[in-house]
Amino acid sequence: MKVKRLKVGVRPLEEGLGEFGTTLKALRDGRTVSKRTGVYFVSVEAMRRVLTEPRLTLLHTIRTRHPRSIAALAKLAHRDFKNVRADVKILSELGLVELKTGPRIRDAVTLTVPYQYIQFEIAV
Fold it and tell me: What is the mean pLDDT of residues 42-71?
């Protein structure tokens, strides 16, 4: 089984915009663009505001305990359901958590973390 890794890092806004512009130009010209995965922030502070300790704990809990719902995750984490749901939504929007519809109404959402490792990268 291949180990899945996700790069999370900090890169200057100009670098991200430049890469976006290059990709857009390539697409306009009909060239194929290689898929790149990663989540990047414009500063360490921005990364810390999003990847908080409670959210990283949720990632670990999902990966190791395999809760069957957000409610089950909240119980495992000993946290309020509403706050866990909000954190899961943010993690899902970043691509760190996948949400799948469960087979029953009670298990409306199945949570998975599609990565075994998250690598942090900071440009200097």
Answer: 93
